[in-house]
Amino acid sequence: MMSVVTVSPILHNIDNLVGYLKRGRGLDCDYSDLGFIDERTKRPKIGANLGVPEEARFASDEISRSCGLRLGYIPKRLGLNDDVIDRLHNENTKNLLLNHKKLHLVLDLDHTLLNTTFLDNMSPDEEYLKTQTQSDHSLQYVHIVDTPSMQLMTKLRPYIRTFLVQASQMFEMSIYTMGNRAYALEMAKLLDPGNQIFGGRVISRSDSTETDRKRLDVLLARDSAVVILDDSKDVWTTDNQDNVIEMPRYHFFRSSCQKFGLSNGKPYSELKIDECDRFGGAYLANVLQLLKHIHTIFFNEVELQGWDLIDRDVRLVLKILKKEVLKGYRIVFSHVFPSNVQADTHPLWKMVEELGATCSTQVDPSVTHVVAANARTQKSCWAVKEGKFLVNPQWIHTTNFMWQRQPEDNFPCH
Ligand SMILES: [Mg+2]
User: Which of 7, 284, 291, 335 could join 159 via S-S bond, C-beta 3.0 to 4.6 A?
Assistant: First the structure.
């Protein structure tokens, strides 16, 4: 049976955590089964017990998943068996919820918090940026220590400083990127120069337990108390996709737009504007409001009061909030899906249902919106005649990103 510390020490700093685990004194639970690895010999220090023969454990530099989880982002290459991991997940989350009234927040880097380009890939119209790094603190040269050839420039997303400070009052913050470790650490330094916000919780590609997928098992947290901000839901393992708030991608540089096939028009860098000039405000300001709402509901909502905090599930809060966005509306699609695709399997159809609206294939008086590829379809004409909303599909995408019904007039059908 798992032993739980009643009042846990502060685990939300990786150095504290390692110290805490190493001391292992004055606790109700036993951490003698931890595996600290001696960096010189690659052998376990005395007391390590990972439950497998030593030769198998340290045949390589890695500890395989079968004999525990290797938390590469924690100093001393801490390898923990599954029981200890479970205990730490529970304790860390319980401590956060009860003693700090915080949830966990996992942040992706590229296209979520910032945008990076190789200097070599900058366009002639972006050259002026190379002289702006002194005056614009959201624009920085980056030199990756391990890879001298990597000369980069990074643009931080508008509103990032306020976002990080305010979000860190409600959440224990971690970075999780599929970039390499050296890059992740450099970005963490840019975002959090004083190491006050992330406290060493910087997870990179090599820490993942799955190739090319992110998974919450490397975070010392219960999945039920984690919110993720990422520009891609699909990069997460299916089990963790309900934790994700999908962000609209932040593209500042030309190379970033090109990589995603967005070659129509000039990028922000060349227009000498930023997301906040186009978006009706910084997107991070919008998502901060959403996070505040989620936090308030999680800790205060009457319907959740019957549960112990530790048993609450923030994924349910996300679902409930999303269902409110288009609740009561009925939507018909017109020429939006390819003819060979069954309508109710299309991602847009599912997105509308997640937003709380119902979908239909036929028009009838209960329909409130026609989402159409153009204004000349039969259903589009019906919408105009009947005084229903007629919008293009982007209305759904933007409503989904903003978690708020968008003004229909901004999404006309042409
Ligand atoms: Mg990303």
Answer: 284
